[in-house]
Amino acid sequence: MRYLIAILVMIGVFSTASCARKSKVMRQYDGPAVTQIVVSKSQRKMFLLHQKEVLKSYRIDLGFTPDGHKQFKGDGKTPEGRYFINRRNPRSAFHLSLGISYPNSADIAYAKASGREAGGDIFIHGARRAQDPKGRDWTAGCISVSDKEIEEIWLMVQDDTVIDILP
Question: Apex CA 164: angle with CA 107 and CA 161, to 5°?
Fold first, then answer.
């Protein structure tokens, strides 16, 4: 009987632990809808807007070669242009992440014409990990904010939200 109770307790502990990992964000956002995200690479700032009103702004880190538009896989650049939030990763290695629709058809065509790959997997995500490079801009082309900030952004931003990434 003791063994049975011990096994049931262990099953309960493990099932509770796995439930906690499924969702890192449990609150809800009830403010104005975010209608657009604007990223200013030169200012290292990201703005969440409702129409023309700035709801929130964040300091950001960018790709390790931040100047210019991302053109090829591995170039360390953060894309520039109009894209969309197109997916969510609640199990991101960077706490949480929101996918950006890079590459678009023009990005793919340019890379292909150059005999290269455009790359992909560009996200807005949480903070650097211990093993990540130090310094101002360190991602492979993504936009990084703190873990607390990505939780807030995760709640505020819906899929298909426009993101304009400016030089």
Answer: 100
